[in-house]
Write a structure and sequence with these properties.
The chain is of the alpha/beta class and 507 residues long. It folds into three domains: 109 residues, no CATH class; 136 residues, 60s Ribosomal Protein L30, Chain: A (2-Layer Sandwich), CATH 3.30.1330; 179 residues, Fe-S hydro-lyase, tartrate dehydratase beta-type, catalytic domain (fumarase), CATH 3.20.130.10. It has 15 helices and 19 strands. Strands 14-15-16-17-19 form a five-stranded mixed β-barrel. The protein has a four-stranded mixed beta sheet with strand order 6-2-7-12. The protein is globular.
Amino acid sequence: MTVVTKQDLIQSIQDSLQYISYYHPPDFIKALNEAYQREESDAARDAMAQILINSRLCAEGQRPICQDTGIVNVFLTVGMEVRFDTDLSLDGMINEGVRRAYQSTDNVLRASVLADPAGNRTNTKDNTPAVIHTELVPGDKFEVHVAAKGGGSEAKSKLAMLNPSEDIVDWVVKTVPSMGAGWCPPGVLGIGIGGTVEKAVLMAKRSLMEPVDIHDLQARGAINRAEELRLEIFDKVNSLGIGAQGLGGLTTVLDVKVMDYPTHAANLPVAMIPNCAATRHTHFVLDGSGPAVLDVPQLSDWPEITWEAGPNSRQVNLDTVTREEVATWQPGETLLISGKMLTGRDAAHKRIRDLIAAGEDLPKGVDLNGRFIYYVGPVDPVGDEIVGPAGPTTATRMDSFTEMMLDKTGLLGMIGKAERGPTAIEAIKKHQAVYLMAVGGAAFLVSKAIRKSRVVAFEDLGMEAIHEFEVKDMPVTVAVDARGESVHITGPRNWRSRIGKLPIVEV
C-alpha cells in the first residue's frame, strides 16, 4: 500500500506548475530546433528563432515562457491500493498546490481564471480551480500529469460529429486553416476519435500529454490505424504551408497525437485541440517517499541561437511616426520599434467603447491619437524587472473594436499576435492604419525590449489595465499594411503553392 501525504501532493503540484512555466519539455525543444534547421521561409525561421531563444532565456532565468501562464489541467491515475494522509479532498489538495504555485513571489504566474464566466467574470486571483480528471485503476501507483493550457490554443479547439462515412483526415485538413494562427504554431495537434462527444474532447486533451515522437514513428512505420492517421495528418497539415505564427512555411505542426475509443455505430465524434509553441506539461509518480523529483533539463538541450534583425529592418520611433510614414511600410517587413505605446485588451477596449458611447472623456493618459496600442496582459515583474513576460495576445479578439478605435480615437496602429479578420482588415484599409505582429511564444524575450512601464488607466482590471510601455528596438512584423494586405493570407497561400502537395483553396 502506498501512502501519499497531503503535503507531498500539494508540494508536487506547486513545484510542477512552477517548473513547466519556465521549462519546455526537452522533446519539444529538440523537435522545434529540427524544424528551425529545416525551415526555408525567412519569416517563419525568424519566428522560431525567437521562440527558441525565449525558451532558453526562461530556463536560465526561471521566468514564464508565455505571459499566459494557463489554466491548470490535471490528469490523475490513482491505484486502488493508494491511501491519502489528508484532511482535504483530492481536488482540494490539487487546488491548494495550484494556489501556492500561482501566488509564489519568486516567479509570478499570471492569474487568468475567471469565476462566474457568463456573468461578472471575476478573477479568482490564484488560478483556482484546476480542471481535474481522475481515473481509478488496480495497483498502488499514483500517477499525475500536469499541464497549463493557454487561452490562445484552447480557443482554437474544434469538435465535429462526423458521419461514419466521412473522412477524418479531410476534416482536419479543412479545419486547421480555419483556426488561424492564434494558437501559435508550430505546436502539436491532439485528436480524439470516438466514444461520445465529451469523451472525444477528453481524449484530444489527454493525448497532448504524450512525448513528441513523430519522427520515431516515421522511422518504424505505423502498426495500427491511429498511427497511420498521425502520419497522414502530420504530412498534410504541414503541406498547408501555414508555417510558424501563420506567416507561411514548411512546419505548422511538430507532432500529431491520436487517441480513439469505441463509439456508437451511427456516429463519429472527432475533437481536435492544439498545443501552442508554449507547450507546458510534465508527469510524475508519487510512491510515498516524498514529493515529486522533477529532472532539470541541461542547458545543452537548447540550441545556441542568436537573433539579429536583418540588414533591411526599419527603425521606427513611435513618438514621432506619421501616417505618411506608416503608408510606406510593406507587408512582411521587420520593424524595430522604439518609444512609447499604450496597452489594452478586451476589457479595456470595452470600457473605452462604453465611455465613448456615453459621450464621456477617456481617462487622463489615454490619448490614442497617432499612437500605437499593444494587445498584452503582462506578467507582474519580480526583482529588478521593469515588467514580467509580455508577449502579445490574439488580435482577432479585438476585431469588433477596431473600427471604433480607429474612427473615434485617432489610433494609428495596433500590435498583437497572429492574423486579423476581414472586418478589422477592412477598417485598417479604410483608415490607412497598420497592424503589426509580435511573436507569440517569445514573451520573456519581448519583455527585454521594455525599458519603462506604468499603469495609466483601469488599474482595477489587473493585468488588463492600460499600461504605458516605453520600448527600445522591439521586433515586429508588418502583418496588415495600410492598403489592407495581410501576410497571414499571402504567406500561407504562397508556401502551400511552393510545397505543392495540396491544391490552393480560398479560406
